[in-house]
Amino acid sequence: MPVIARRLGNMISDDAKQRISSLKHYPTIDTWRNPLTRSIARRLTNDAWRKTLDEIDFEYRLSPLEIDQVSCLQYETTGSTAERPLILYVHGGGFVAGSPETNAANVLPICHLGGFEGIGVDYTLLPDAHFPTQIDEVDIVYRAILETTPQRKIILLSDSTGSAIALSALMRWRKDGVLAPAGAIFLSPCIDGKGASDTQITADHHDPLIRSMGGKFARQLFKFYAPDKDLKDPAISPIYGKFDGLPPIMIHVGSREVLLGDAARLSEAVRQAGVEVTLRVFDGMFHRFHMHWKIEEARNAHADLADFINTL
């Protein structure tokens, strides 16, 4: 297969340029729907994400645990302590791939830089369960942590489609009067099942990972997640929800992403609701670049996230 030539800006680091040139588009929705190809696509995708752990240059430990019958994974680094905030991580993967283990490179650097511990929710993937099971499982874990450690600061961290799950859970806790996390972080958030953001069109041929087809991919993916449901239901596509009363929010996204528009719209909606919000757009970066610890831009982004948590 020939190497894809991509035009890159001069200010992107050399490591980032090499990584962008080597990236391949995610599988199509037809691949994910087909049981014959889904297992192969899931294995290849998970292997690629798991490989990013090879770039981690500090000691860490991943420990399986179960919280109220929901499988989870605990993250620790040498500096992690129970006195520091706890990160509750909701991984991405299009609702059909990924796990707290394969996507651990998204959260381990933050734990390392800030001395935090983390817990990742191993929610049920498609098609073994559909909406709202994934939100329910995150909800169960969060409430259990609150009950056992009510005084501890909890930071909600999510990426890609995990952000749709996490943001919906955040809105549920507000509705139910449950104590909110101290803050929330959304990395490359995919939160609009209608695929209506302008960058679904303008960035379609520049995103090295996601083929948008003008938002068609997002619509098909969210229909797979929530069959026969209204994709503008805020529980499914939380960008259409209300944002008043939420905790401080940090959003990271790359300028090459078709999801840049989702991040921008979320930032503006949260700002208009009177909630403290910070949007960081990283020039030239791609979907979930945080997983690539070798890249200078990823290291800077994780340092920014650790700083954000330390201010809460």
Summarize the structure.
This protein is α/β, with parallel strands linked by helices. The chain contains ten helices and eight strands. The protein has a single domain, classed as Rossmann fold (3-Layer(aba) Sandwich), CATH 3.40.50.
Write the layout of secondary structure elements.
Elements: H1 14-22, H2 29-33, H3 35-51, E1 60-67, E2 70-77, E3 86-90, H4 108-114, E4 117-121, H5 133-148, E5 154-159, H6 162-176, E6 183-187, H7 199-202, H8 216-225, E7 249-254, H9 260-272, E8 277-282, H10 296-311
Helix pairs in contact: 4-10, 5-6
Can you describe what's shown?
The chain has 312 residues and is an alpha/beta fold. The chain has a single domain, classed as Alpha/Beta hydrolase fold, catalytic domain (Rossmann fold, 3-Layer(aba) Sandwich). The chain has 10 helices and 8 strands. It has helices at 14-22, 29-33, 35-51, 108-114, 133-148, 162-176, 199-202, 216-225, 260-272, 296-311, and strands at 60-67, 70-77, 86-90, 117-121, 154-159, 183-187, 249-254, 277-282. An 8-stranded mixed β-sheet has the order 1-2-4-3-5-6-7-8, sandwiched between helices. Helix 6 (162-176) links the parallel strand 5 and strand 6. Helix 4 (108-114) crosses helix 10 (296-311) and helix 5 packs across helix 6 (162-176). The longest helix has 17 residues, at 35-51.
CATH superfamily: Alpha/Beta hydrolase fold, catalytic domain
**What structural class results from the helix and strand content?**
alpha/beta
List SSEs in N-to-C order.
HHHEEEHEHEHEHHEHEH
Helix count equals: 10
CATH C-level label: Alpha Beta
As a whole number of angstroms, the C-alpha radius of gyration is 18 Å
Shape: globular
